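Researcher: Sequence of GL21322 follows. Predict its structure.
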Amino acid sequence: MVMNTKFSPAGAAQFNYDMTRNLFALFGQYTRRPELLFKRIHDACKLLTAARGTALLLLETLRSNQSVEENMKPLRELQVLRLDSRQCIEVLERRVDIKCFEKWSVRQTI
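Model: Prediction complete. Tokens:
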């Protein structure tokens, strides 16, 4: 579902709210830590709701030609543990605010 949608900051906040307050709460009736059942969605929510500056720096780091271990350090800092760097790039590219910023910065360099 995340990969079929583009998220504005408000849309990402609403998605995060729906997941944490509704889906996780529903499964919380049956397990202590429902977010463990939805680890990838939980990680995607962290990436989608991260501050724009943090997300831009993370995207730039992940796109650089560093080693896998170097790319994983900032993900661990954000506690994104289940998505690999390619998947994180794909999730971050679903953010409308990042795409708009990238288009704007390309125009400024021309």
